[in-house]
Amino acid sequence: MPRPVTLFTGQWADLSLDELAAQAKAMGYDGLELACWGDHFDVERALSSPDYVHERWSVLQSQGLVCHAIANHLVGQAVCDLIDERHRAILPPGVWGDGDPEGVRQRAAKRMIDTAKAARAFFDARPGAAAIDFPAVVTGFTGSSIWHAVYAFPPTSQDYLQKGFDDFARRWRPILDAFDAVDVNFALEVHPTEIAFDIASAQRALEAVDHHPRFGFNFDPSHFAYQGVDYIRFLRTFGERIYHVHMKDVWWGRGDGSVGVFGGHTDFGDARRNWDFRSVGRGDVRFQDIIVALNDIGYRGPLSVEWEDARMDRVHGAAEAAAYVRQLDFPPSAVAFDAAFERGRGGMAS
Questions:
Q1: Which residues pair with 6 in a beta bridge?
Q2: Lowest mean pLDDT, pick from 85-99, 125-139, 207-221, 248-262
Q3: Alpha-carbon distance values, 319 to 219, 308, 309, 316, 339 (Å)
Q4: Which residues lie closer than 8 Å to 228 by C-beta, 6 or more apart?
């Protein structure tokens, strides 16, 4: 069976879940990856009210939609970050609190633990859950106390960087243990500003948490490609840790030469930029190669479109992306392609 094509709701949080579910169905999606902002999935309500998780499923079912992942990127970002005023805009008031940085980080960690429990409650309430093979997944970010040192000046030692990975491990191991206790996987979207943003840092992050079984990756090629990171190699390196997949496109090597890879403090969609996110199929990502690699590593989970393109109407783009991904995907072969040529099996003899 082809993989389900879902839509990540994070960029659609201005719409209610009822509105978005109807829109997603009309655009051709099989399901939604529910973000924990807007009104799409409320962690606290999921824990306090059994009726709430059933109501969420009812909304999805009314449109014939499924869900295989809950997303909590915004709160996860605050677990390890050096907190500043920008975080207030993305965090729930209860996590921000008085804004004291360490307090924010600790409340964010607790909310991520609660997210695991809420995801478990939600997926346990899934109609026909026994027939679904995909594990429960929370996608998200980790934040990083050393991202500001990505360009190593003032001179930055490996000891300094290791303190950042140690901080990540100290803060995330209890969270991952809580995920393990409720049988939920955490899938870090490897991404600039996170503890892991390429293959080398992803390997180091895994080592920092002693290859915790609940720590894996939400693969998103758009965050690798413009950096010059081999995103197909990422899939083949971490095949058993690919817990979820975002289909998101990007182009690079554009612009007028005045803005580099670091973005020049310009906004997305600025024509001067060297790179920008594009609607799926309109950028430079080699999605055919991704499907082949996903089949090779045995990934059977959803293909979740994270739609971003500053130049395009989002409904037009998201509908086009759903059709593109559905046409692109194919199931792996169950037989050797040349088996019919073997002598004695009714094929041609050599």
A1: 31, 304
A2: 125-139
A3: 21, 12, 13, 5, 39
A4: none
